[in-house]
Amino acid sequence: MTDLVVISLEAWDDVWRRNQHLVSRLLERDPALRVLFVEPPADPLHDLVSRRRPAGGFDPTPAAGFEGRLLRFRAVKALPRRIDRRADERLARAVERAAAAVGMRHPLLWVNDPDGAAVARLTGWPTLYDITDDWAAADRPAAEIARIRDDEAWLLSHAGAVVACSPELVRRKSGGRPGSITLIPNAVDVEAYRAPRPRPADLPPRAAVYVGTLHTDRLDLEVCEATARALGADGRLVLVGPNALDDTATQRLCEAGALLLGPRSRDDVIGYLQHAEVLVVPHVVTPFTESLDPIKLYEYTAVGRPVIATPVAGFRDAADADVRVVAASDFPGAVAAALAQPRPPAGRTKAPVASWDERAAAMRAVIDGLARA
Questions:
Q1: Which structural domain range is residue 309 located in?
Q2: How many distinct structural domains can be found in the chain?
Q3: Is the pTM value of this prediction over 0.90?
Q4: CA–CA separation, 139 vs 370, rounded Å?
């Protein structure tokens, strides 16, 4: 394997997700590997409508580290699909041109975003479909759900290899064909999360901390508001991560007393987790969240802090004595009670947790099999 094109659901930035953890380790272990990391396309018209500064695309650009073997690329979606019916084809051709421009003639294709089906159709490159979320079960407009289902059906039928991060995704997507999907769950950089970090200067005393993207697909806003109010003067609900909420939802949380700190780099996040009095998971329980294998489960487990979670997948069945699962109605009181407890002593035994090194080895085996096919 020397060339890999990754169609990602997220940009390559300081907030690391599954793609970045796995790709970085593959690059570290294979000095001949080159990766073109395709970020979600810029959508300047949507940015303007949303009153954001329009983002632009960029040609393949070396990312920091990896000696130029990791190249980021972002195309531009000039018009929405309802106006330009060939928008996906144009984006796919942009990816094909970008790969050719850096000398990738016959790469392998790793699709995380179902929209990447357009690239697979156009190019015929050997394709790995890595399923990390059941977007067909998310709360989206009907036309978007229909497109996701069509793309995913094509990928499940035509990809040379299919991987999923949770047993539930394997069950839903395998179509009753045992062994057709390889289970590769998420993980954590165990050593990094267990090395002591200083307390972040903006972390309030007595903090109940949530780390992750703030999005209504996952967050239960009513539970968050009630929890922030229940803590009162005795503590603070602190939300760390990119904010994908609208202005109204953001204002509701702030008025309830929650502190929204925004995104932090992958290294800085560790300090917030280690120094929280309690870590929280105020998630909704929906068909979408039931499909997930939350990375935060592994991160929370690695730092060994008390955890209060609603009964969502992953946390509901966690084999970790520090994790307490409660109903949404009991969540605010449980968090307040946890904040009132003495802080557990340092140096105690933490629950075992899987590492990204293990997962990268499993993904490499799948990719090698695809390359040989």
A1: 190-339
A2: 2
A3: yes
A4: 33
